[in-house]
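> call design_seq(struct)
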């Protein structure tokens, strides 16, 4: 399964990004000022404005994406995440600090670990479900329909296997996690697919681990590029298939360039780094094969922003375009 089968037809649908660093900087600086004035509350509305800009500047096959989320949804989702996740963990930490009973300390530690172990995968699923439900293309919404229970089970079992194998199971876990999130994603009434093998990245991962001390860690940029190519090249949409052609050198230049921009501008260059990343994806990612858009119908699904709030607390990404 290392090389994906060719997509049917010869159609090539390119992705374009029209955004500019200066335009995003105008949005960003207003967001920062209003976030300071409102003691952080405006952060959620600012995040929505940035997403709406980035989505709206992304064009696929001649039509642009649209983002329909709101700051109010993110704010309420964050408050719910605080109530159901952060507050219980805070109470358990107080119990560990002030109780003199060793049994209670041990139980509070175990319960905290269980809560984090369950809520982290829930945050990944919830964030993806929310972001896709608020994204549309050609007026048709995307959605995520995977079972949260199934993903939690997959996540916990594979995390245990990663620990038992001292990290060697990680590339298999990475592929399985990506396969679940991709194959349960829909555009209207049509499902995305993933046909990569779980072991498809194991050889590259093992070689990268071996080469790490000899390359001062730089070989990981080539592994990142390999992983993104593998994920995208095995992602299908009906008869069409994605193609990603970025190399390790290109990924290294992108990340190093963004780091230099952020350091020398003291963070003010963040909008330009975001635009560079978006243009990078557009430059190397295409869709090959017939899309047959006429047969796709609207099939939107409701989704709560609570998972997005959890993702923000736990830094768990929900929609990675690589």
């Amino acid at each position: 399964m290392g090389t994906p089968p060719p997509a049917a037809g010869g159609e090539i649908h390119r992705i374009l990004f029209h955004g500019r660093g200066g335009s995003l900087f105008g949005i960003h600086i207003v967001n920062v000022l209003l976030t300071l004035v409102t003691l952080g509350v405006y952060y959620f509305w600012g995040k929505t404005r940035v997403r709406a800009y980035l989505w709206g500047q992304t064009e696929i096959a001649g039509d642009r994406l649209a983002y329909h989320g709101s700051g109010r949804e993110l704010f309420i989702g964050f408050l719910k995440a605080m109530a159901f996740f952060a507050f219980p963990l805070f109470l358990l930490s107080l119990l560990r600090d002030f109780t003199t009973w060793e049994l209670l300390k041990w139980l509070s530690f175990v319960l905290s670990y269980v809560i984090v172990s369950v809520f982290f995968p829930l945050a990944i699923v919830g964030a993806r479900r929310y972001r896709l439900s608020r994204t549309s293309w050609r007026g048709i919404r995307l959605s995520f329909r995977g079972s949260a229970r199934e993903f939690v089970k997959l996540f916990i079992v594979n995390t245990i296997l990663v620990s038992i194998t001292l990290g060697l199971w990680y590339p298999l876990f990475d592929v399985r996690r990506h396969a679940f999130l991709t194959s349960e994603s829909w555009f209207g009434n049509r499902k995305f697919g993933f046909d990569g093998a779980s072991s498809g990245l194991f050889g590259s991962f093992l070689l990268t681990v071996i080469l790490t001390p000899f390359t001062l860690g730089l070989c990981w940029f080539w592994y990142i590029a390999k992983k993104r190519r593998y994920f995208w090249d095995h992602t299908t949409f009906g008869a069409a298939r994605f193609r990603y052609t970025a190399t390790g050198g290109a990924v290294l230049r992108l990340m190093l360039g963004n780091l230099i921009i952020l350091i020398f501008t003291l963070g003010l260059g963040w909008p330009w780094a975001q635009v560079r990343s978006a243009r990078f994806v557009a430059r190397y990612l295409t869709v090959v094969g017939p899309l047959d858009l006429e047969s796709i119908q609207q099939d939107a699904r409701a989704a709560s922003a609570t998972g997005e709030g959890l993702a923000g607390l736990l830094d768990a990404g929900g929609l990675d375009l690589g």
